[in-house]
Amino acid sequence: MNRSERRATARPSGQATPAALSQTGFTHLQSGRIAEAELCCQQALTLDEQHPDALHLLGVICFHAQQPDAAVEWIGRAVRQAPRAEYLLSLATILERQGRLEDARQHYSQALRLKPDDAGLWNHVGNLLWQVAQGDEAVLHYQQALTLNPQYWEPAQNCGMLLLELGRHAEALECFNTAEKLNRNSAALYQMRAVCLSAVNRFDEAQADYETSIALDPGLAETYNNLGLLHWRFGRLEQAFACFDRALALRPDFHAVLNNKAVVLLHLQLLDEAFATLQRSQAAAPDDAQTLFYLATLQLLTGDFERGWLAREARWRLPSVGLVDRGFSQALWRGDQPLEGKTILLHSDEGLGDAIQFARYVPMVAALGAKVILEVEPPIQQCLGGIAGVAECVSRSSPPAFDLHCPLGALPLAFKTRLDTIPLAEGYIPAPPAARVKAWEDRLGPHTRFRVGLVWAGNPDHKNDHNRSMALRALAPLLDCDVQFVSLQKGVRDQDRAFLAERRDIVDLTEHLTDFSETAALMSCLDLVISVDTSVAHLAGALGAPVWTMLPFNPDWRWLLNRDDSPWYRSMKLFRQPTRGDWASVVDDVRRELERQLAARRAQRATSRR
What we know:
Helices cover about 55% and strands about 10% of the residues. By secondary structure, it is α/β, with parallel strands linked by helices. The longest helix is centred in the C-terminal third of the chain and has 27 residues.
């Protein structure tokens, strides 16, 4: 079409109406003739400055010209003239692209009221509601889309993904199964259903779904990543690394895969390779919190406290760690503000063991002139309330007035702690009251044999529990020693209950262990505590009581590597797995050391009788 023909096409005839001009403009827009479409709009608005079709079309033209604010203005005028569904949808779409999600949601909802039978619109609004964290409402929209069109697989898949994110696994599986019946060609569907199946411990089915997803689309790096994690869970190292490497071949800068590969290398104690992989991940995503946290773990594990404490603060940006920002208006103390005459709240931020470990810093804070309010969980409140420098020990509720605050886990950073400056390693929790100790002595009876407290399992909800806990039966070789064993194990698991009932030689008075102050009093009656990596081990070390801690092959960062002592607790001796999962060797080592101590004790007694 030449210039004169275009002018003739765009020129309104004597009978042209705003509606006809708008329709012609729309035709021009569809054919990519933007200037001609805009001219038609202007002519239509000359005839009727409030004509809704022309206003709407001009807004769409502005949007195509990357003028979103102008587009919103023109379409908004069209909506005010005639709130038609197509205008509302256009406006909502532009608002959504601008990130104005709440405004977009309101306009989509208006469109739904005008087009309640549009399944695609219900699905789309469900997607938007998911984005604005209105999960329950989004689920209802997906379900309505399916009701309107039972053959529409997309809302079934979307609903499954959302329910998976919400942790409603049974409902998610129902949606995924519905989607599969409607569409067996979605690689993403099988990938997400596999994630859901893994979450409910149906691992064989999960693996089959991952493999189906790969067969449908071998280019999805995320699927290889997830399958690699599944292989790693079951110790299939070769397959795990092959999956991670395949994912990285598809996406070399996929930092989540690099992080996962680094964690596996860390668990194998291939530290140089783990460091190199994390550095590669950091290059791909310099501020990624998960990468920084894993780097911190490696740095602390290898004694590089100077960099480790700082990187560890990335934990606050990780939902998986489960920390809660308290939202205090008072300033966070980082070690660089004066404390003289100030009141500071030191509050527990992680587990009971962490709180016990880092409560050692309370006297140092108090020595700077501060009044210290210590806030910890109720089971350890009475126990830690006696630490020097604690003015008041409270549980989490409404703490008294304070000027500054600091999480307990950030105190090593505030004091720039190095391996050679760890404070109070000899013990810092005061001895329990004599009357309470005597009550436990009375329960235990005559102290005629060496007394050993036992803890073989931690909190089953801990993410590393499968590595750090053992079955009571695994301690059977130890139980033949000439020792009075005393259970310190709270919350005995079903798998251990029958065995404990059979072993009448293990004194079990744990019904009286109402909090950690009672556990501390019982410990004071014992000669030794043998424990896996739990809060009880921290309690013994903080009391200065002899404690032997049994560690998995890949230990928590605080226990460092290649040493049988702990710079955090001088009364602690460490026993480590030589290979992954090898508790038998640990128990054998503990038995030999216990027999050695018993022999030395007998020899000392024989000498004293002479």
